[in-house]
Amino acid sequence: MALSLTGAADNTRITGFETIDLTGSGNNSLTLDYASLLHLVSESTSGAGFRTLTVTGNAGDSITANLSGLGFTTSSSGGFTTYELDQLRLVVSNDVNQGGVTI
User: pTM, whole model, 2 decimals?
Assistant: First the structure.
């Protein structure tokens, strides 16, 4: 399954997500950009006021996210990589291929 949330004419209708789980049969992929990430988490907040989307999955799953030129930083802890800008966080399981994430 390939889920792309970029370029939608009205991606503001998909909001309030905390987790996307790519686990399943076959290799699954998720494609995001800054606007779609912002809309996905616009209504959900977690610890310390951060708006966070967590992406989980297994070997063979992948994420593509164009976050370049915005000032995102990365850190890794507890089996996850966190991409952070101000109060916005994208947290991705290290089991998921992140080769397509650009910051």
Answer: 0.89
